Amino acid sequence: MGMSRMVRRSLCMLVALLGVLGLMGSVVVDARPRRILLDTDVDTDDLFALLYLLKQNRSEFDLKAVTISANAWTDAGHAVNQLYDILYMMNRDDIPVGVGGDGGILDDGTILPNVGGYLPIIEQGMSTAGDCRYRQAIPIGSGGRLDIDSNYGLRRSFLPQGHRRYFPLQQPTTQQVMIDTISAGPTTVILIGSHTNFALFLMANPHLKKNIEHIYIMGGGVRSENPTGCCPKNSSTSCIPRQCGDHGNMFTAYTSNPYAEFNVFGDPFAAYQVFHSGIPITLVPLDATNTIPVTEQFFMSFQQQQDTYEAQYCFQSLKITRDTWFDNQFYTSFFMWDSFTSGVAVSIMRNADKYNGVNEFAEMEYLNVTVVTSNKPYCINDGSNPFFDGRAIPKFNLQRDGVHSGHVQTGLQDSFCLVPGNNKGICEDGYTKEVTGSEGVRVLVAKKAKPNQDVHSPLDREFFISFLDVLNLPQHTGRFNFATQFPYYSETLYKPDFTNRSLGKPVVFDMDMSAGDFLTLLYLLKVPVETINLKGILVSGNGWANAATIDVIYDVLHMMGRDDIPVGLGNVTALGTPSLGCKYVKAIPHGSGGFLDSDTVYGLARTLPRSPRRYTAENSVKFGAPRNTDHPELRQPLAMEVWQSITRELNPSDKITLLTNGPLTNLANIVLSDENASSIIQNVYIVGGHIVDEHGEKGNVFTVPSNEYAEFNMFLDPLAAKKVIESDLQIILIPLSAQRKVVSFKSILKSLKLADKTPEALFAYRLLSLMQKLRRQHQTYHHMDIFLGEMLGAVFLADGPNLYPTMQIKPVSVLAGNIGKDGQIVINGKNGKLVSILSNFNSEAYYSQFANFFGDRRQSAVVASFDEQEKKWSMPPNQTEGV
């Protein structure tokens, strides 16, 4: 770098430093700091925006609260703990984080307190379970929510772990945090996710609008033309453009809706409420963000400027995103969406004495826009619009022939939106459309990123300079990462030595990571290896927990000294359903008692010791990736790969016993793809299913009233259940009727209380007593007993005769293809498959056996908790003995 460029660089750094320190008197026009509330879906670029705001001088810009947009790119339980860890790293535990809530909206449109924002307003009823009308545009697994929930595996490897964490019924809700923050004084709101949370706030608290100074929004596309998905200039005529030239950016949905951008599409009606609230709005749409892609020059400059922990976390996040990008166009298709918005917002606020949104980073203009919430013709009743269909009075008293009364897009394959013979759809839901007349709202819009004033710089946008300088400033910097948080941190893998032990039957456990499943896993690890040799774990990503919760499995295995056991991640959708959708899993609540609690193990997951193993997005060409990442050896194995590895290592005389505690998706895929499966599988113990009989006992799918007789594990993938149960495998069914014999919290807690206090027994007791307490305290936890019966399969597998069981053999069939009957198991004397069914047993023997194994000092935890690890890593190795 020449001397003149070095001088310019130094001057830029000095200007940035003075700005952040608030010493530039000419631009500070208000003595009080700007109070900011950030509503985020915690996507990768959201983290950049958050950290950029946290680095500002608090005398100018004071981030007062963060709330989580829980119906977009992330899942609430994973998002809230990541935010707590980032704030802990940045020494900002004073900032409240709001997530979720279990309130609902009555049929008459009354908004009850603490609606959680898990569902778009059009789908919100009195439950947190519901359809993914808009969210299905976001991929669930790799490249989607799985990678965002885990930040590609970086979240657990990099961020320090503080003392704040999600805990049931104690976690501040989104609406609570919004109300508290905005009630306290004039507030600027920055929205970088869907608008559900803030729209609900405005609709329920109109008296607090006066406290909102300004709204900054990243989202929408007004006059934008998507630069991605285009054919190269010299391409052949066979190249078909994808989203090239579209106003929107939904790469999964342009064939039905080429107009919408992800954030606004997440809840168009909510966005409409925000835009039409009467509060001043600055919009940073795709029009502007499309002009600031992450260039190779910016990437290389960033790689060389990582002087702070926050800069390192951002760069590593950006790098793994690039390295796992689906094609070779990363530098022209990944943009500075939310971070650019935070920069524009800060700069406009800093230059508040000037007019028309003057700022350093974007060219601005005023436009009249609205948000399209339904498609013409208006005033139709085609079953797509719950605000109007079947109602004498429209919900929220909406105008019957107004802009909300048309067809509302129902999904990615909505036939109304598709044009035969054309790969561009006609639906406009979520389109931030430029209009004239009274329907439009005057909005300040960023239309283009400003070029770098230094024409000699390799960075072609002014904001690039600010972003790198601000993140690398020594002020308000992160204190440590996970490794440097502890002076004597080290990674250790624990693998047992079974050299002189006679190993028992090979067992593979298939789980969907519910609370009962984790207790089952602990039980299997406590059974003497002479009885059960746990060879591997298969994970269903379409059950009671989101796929990123696989990290908790690694932590349990680490706790028990079994880092040798492989864990394979299975499908995230049910057999025969689209890869983007939620046909069956939508029956599981998102909030309390559902995903939020499963993903965090009811707030207790972070008390477990931290395993060096974790999910990562690392990949290699060998497994079909477009390129190798830095550490392909850390790639997360798939369920089928783990299965194949186990079967290859079997002795010729060995056969595998399978225990399934979730939907049967993984096993169905094994049956469909492995023609030798039946010859190497000895028995399959299936925990689940409800047999419809003359007694009329109902199932447990409490969120689907039309299906009275199904059980969750079968309902979550009825085609897989049908394929497995009606196959030639030897099935032993532990149905709902048997599980219901052991759902007494009182009995199981009494037995555990009498057992020796091993670390695993203490964890089980704490989890079960918490679930019992929650069930008593709040109606959203009324179903806690369904998880108690899930341990029965493991106890029966390990020590069946001592339960004095009664077995029946019956011909059964599984119903599939009708949502009102999906997953039901019926007696079919003519064509049914004969299966062994556990019909009765001694429940007292079960409770005793369960507790005895947990209290056994053999095969006990080698590291009891995260607290124990903290103590170990805080002292020299020679002083940690006995800790």
What layout of secondary structure does this protein have?
Layout: H1 3-21, E1 34-40, H2 44-54, E2 61-68, H3 76-89, E3 97-98, H4 145-150, H5 154-158, H6 174-183, E4 187-192, H7 196-204, E5 212-218, H8 262-265, H9 268-275, E6 281-284, H10 286-289, H11 296-304, H12 309-323, H13 330-333, H14 337-350, E7 362-371, E8 432-434, E9 441-449, H15 462-472, E10 505-511, H16 515-526, E11 532-539, H17 550-559, E12 567-569, H18 595-600, H19 639-648, E13 656-660, H20 665-673, H21 677-680, E14 681-687, E15 691-692, H22 712-715, H23 718-725, E16 731-734, H24 736-739, H25 745-754, H26 759-777, H27 785-788, H28 792-799, E17 806-814, E18 825-827, E19 833-840, H29 843-855, H30 866-873
Parallel strand pairs: 1-2, 1-4, 2-3, 4-5, 5-6, 6-9, 10-11, 10-13, 11-12, 13-14, 14-16, 15-18, 16-19
Antiparallel strand pairs: 7-8, 7-9, 17-18, 17-19
What does this structure look like?
The model is unreliable at 1-9 and 20-29 (pLDDT under 50). Helix content is 31%, strand content 13%. A ten-stranded mixed β-sheet has the order 12-11-10-13-14-16-19-17-18-15, with helices on both faces. The chain has a nine-stranded mixed β-sheet with strand order 3-2-1-4-5-6-9-7-8. It contains 30 helices and 19 strands. The chain starts with a helix and ends in a 10-residue tail after the last helix. With 883 residues, the protein is of the alpha/beta class. InterPro entries: Inosine/uridine_hydrolase_dom, Ribo_hydro-like. Residues 36-375, 507-846 form the Inosine/uridine-preferring nucleoside hydrolase domain. GO terms for molecular function: hydrolase activity, hydrolyzing N-glycosyl compounds.
